[in-house]
């Protein structure tokens, strides 16, 4: 029988939640790395027991942890992230040049074909790759070096590369996203990159349709349609059907199109999910009601999903990497909040329940569907 | 024998006790002591000083014989009492927060 394993990163440690395929009873393991900020954990699709975890702390920097047994035991691997060549500068919040400096790993994306190959998206924004299970890291410097890097500015959370999407039908094609530079694509395995932000409109930059400068919060893709991308931008929910060459807004009837997460149903590539957040100044749901919105039409037409979610006095946030979908039938949807709840739906969003209530603030949620 | 006191968080990380003893070759400096500490406990690489620049992390302090050595050159000779093991080198996580 299938089972599922949730990898939950929080501000004070990691937690691993497991259940059988019924997804009714959950075992909770943790905190792992108690007291440390666990920005992200993700397992290899080739070897699900191989998990990479980002462990950091303001005092003591960044560590990379690796498990070969599904998170029961861990070993620290390489944590030397050295920018290629002279790092140069990006722009600071006030527009002045600021030296590139490594701060932390926001996101790990294990290879689709090799458990020892993994990509790391870091702050200050850069993409690194390891081909030896995380022991050593090498920057794919064509991204920072393609030309617009000196103009990139940080978002409120820092200049972070937070999204990495690998194309299952073309290993040379990858998408990444940076706050607040925008989305980028490579078609040659990471050697060269280009911005893919045409169609985005951001009124907080001097030229709202500029090539870069957009605060992309998250991007999602269904593996069966690798040319279709869905984006939750700072404001606006967007989609592209040509690999990011052109975006169109699909916010439609959402009550607010600000938010952080976006994800795609495992079996229905036109069914997508967002969690609308009131505004960039008020990072909580509208009217204190926690609502997931689902579109079965790839955007524009949205329905509120509320059954089992708090509909009064709820003022949590759902951060960009804190939603994930399993591949069971019916598809399971999971998301974590800054209030420490992890909500699960085993019926594609029709109903929800909190499987844990009082964790530290949740930074990331990844689900593994295990055979 | 050099005695080094670790902050609690790093004791847990390294699986070490509150105080560790190190054999240090050559001049006894912050650099040589930290090099020896990281050689003994590789998991501590990058935690006290940046992996690439080797600069001290801002919230880490080095105390020796009741003096703050955090801003001294990493190649300055530490006090004799540290070199002889009479006094420990204290690696301190600064108080920061509410």
Question: Could you explain the architecture of this structure?
Answer:
The complex is a heterodimer of chains A (371) and B (98). Chain A has strands at 3-10, 13-20, 27-32, 37-43, 51-57, 61-67, 75-77, 89-91, 97-99, 104-110, 118-123, 126-130, 138-139, 160-166, 174-179, 182-186, 194-195, 216-221, 229-233, 237-240, 248-249, 262-264, 272-274, 292-295, 303-305, 323-325, 333-336, 342-345, 353-356, 362-370. Chain A is an all-beta fold. In chain A, the strands form 8 sheets. Chain A has a 4-stranded antiparallel beta sheet with strand order 3-2-1-30, with no helix packed on it. A 4-stranded antiparallel beta sheet of chain A has the order 4-5-6-7, with no helix packed on it. Chain B has 98 residues and is an alpha+beta fold. Chain B has one domain: Roll (Ubiquitin-like (UB roll)). Chain B contains 3 helices and 5 strands, in the order E-H-E-H-E-E-H-E. Chains A and B meet through strand 6 of A and helix 1 of B.
Q: How is this fold's topology laid out?
A:
The complex is a heterodimer of chains A (371) and B (98).
Chain A: E1 3-10, E2 13-20, E3 27-32, E4 37-43, E5 51-57, E6 61-67, E7 75-77, E8 89-91, E9 97-99, E10 104-110, E11 118-123, E12 126-130, E13 138-139, E14 160-166, E15 174-179, E16 182-186, E17 194-195, E18 216-221, E19 229-233, E20 237-240, E21 248-249, E22 262-264, E23 272-274, E24 292-295, E25 303-305, E26 323-325, E27 333-336, E28 342-345, E29 353-356, E30 362-370
Chain B: E1 2-5, H1 8-14, E2 19-22, H2 30-40, E3 60-64, E4 67-68, H3 80-83, E5 89-93
Parallel strand pairs in B: 1-5
Antiparallel strand pairs in B: 1-2, 3-4, 3-5
């Amino acid at each position: 029988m299938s089972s599922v394993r949730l990898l939950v990163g929080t501000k004070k440690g990691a937690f691993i939640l497991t259940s059988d395929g019924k997804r009714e009873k959950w075992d909770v393991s943790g905190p792992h790395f108690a007291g440390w900020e666990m920005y992200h954990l993700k397992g290899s699709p080739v070897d699900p027991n191989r998990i990479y975890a980002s462990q950091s702390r303001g005092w003591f920097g960044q560590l990379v942890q690796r498990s070969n047994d599904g998170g029961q035991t861990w070993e620290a691997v390489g944590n030397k992230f050295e920018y290629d060549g002279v790092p140069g500068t990006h722009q600071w919040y006030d527009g002045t040049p600021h030296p590139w400096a490594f701060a932390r790993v926001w996101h790990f994306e294990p290879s689709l074909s090799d458990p020892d190959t993994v990509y790391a998206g870091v702050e200050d924004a850069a993409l690194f790759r390891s081909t030896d299970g995380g022991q050593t890291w090498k920057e794919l410097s064509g991204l920072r070096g393609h030309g617009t890097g000196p103009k990139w500015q940080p978002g409120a959370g820092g200049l972070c590369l937070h999204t990495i999407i690998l194309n299952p039908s073309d290993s040379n094609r990858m998408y990444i996203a940076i706050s607040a530079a925008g989305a980028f694509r490579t078609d040659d395995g990471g050697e060269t990159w280009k911005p893919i932000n045409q169609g985005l409109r951001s009124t907080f930059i001097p030229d709202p349709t500029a090539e870069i400068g957009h605060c992309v919060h998250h991007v999602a893709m269904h593996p069966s349609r690798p040319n279709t991308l869905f984006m939750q931008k700072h404001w606006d929910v967007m989609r592209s059907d040509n690999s990011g060459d052109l975006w169109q807004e699909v916010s439609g009837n959402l009550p607010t199109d600000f938010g952080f997460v976006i994800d795609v149903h495992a079996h229905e590539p036109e069914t997508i999910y967002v969690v609308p957040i009131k505004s960039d100044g008020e990072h909580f749901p509208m009217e204190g009601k926690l609502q997931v919105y689902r579109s079965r039409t790839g955007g524009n037409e949205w329905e509120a999903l509320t059954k089992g979610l708090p509909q009064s006095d709820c003022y949590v946030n759902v951060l960009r990497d804190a939603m994930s979908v399993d591949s069971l039938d019916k598809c399971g949807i999971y998301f974590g909040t800054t209030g420490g709840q992890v909500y699960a739906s085993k019926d594609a969003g029709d109903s929800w329940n909190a499987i844990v209530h009082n964790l530290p603030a949740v930074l990331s949620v990844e689900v593994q569907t295990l055979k | 024998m050099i005695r080094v006191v670790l902050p609690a968080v790093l004791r847990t990380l390294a699986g070490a006790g509150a105080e560790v003893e190190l054999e240090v070759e050559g001049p006894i400096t912050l650099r040589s002591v930290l090099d020896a500490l990281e050689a003994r406990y590789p998991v501590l690489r990058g935690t006290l000083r940046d992996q690439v620049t080797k600069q001290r992390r801002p919230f880490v302090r080095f105390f020796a014989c009741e003096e703050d050595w955090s801003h001294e050159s990493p190649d300055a000779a530490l006090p004799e009492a540290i070199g002889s093991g009479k006094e420990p080198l204290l690696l301190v996580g600064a108080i920061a927060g509410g």
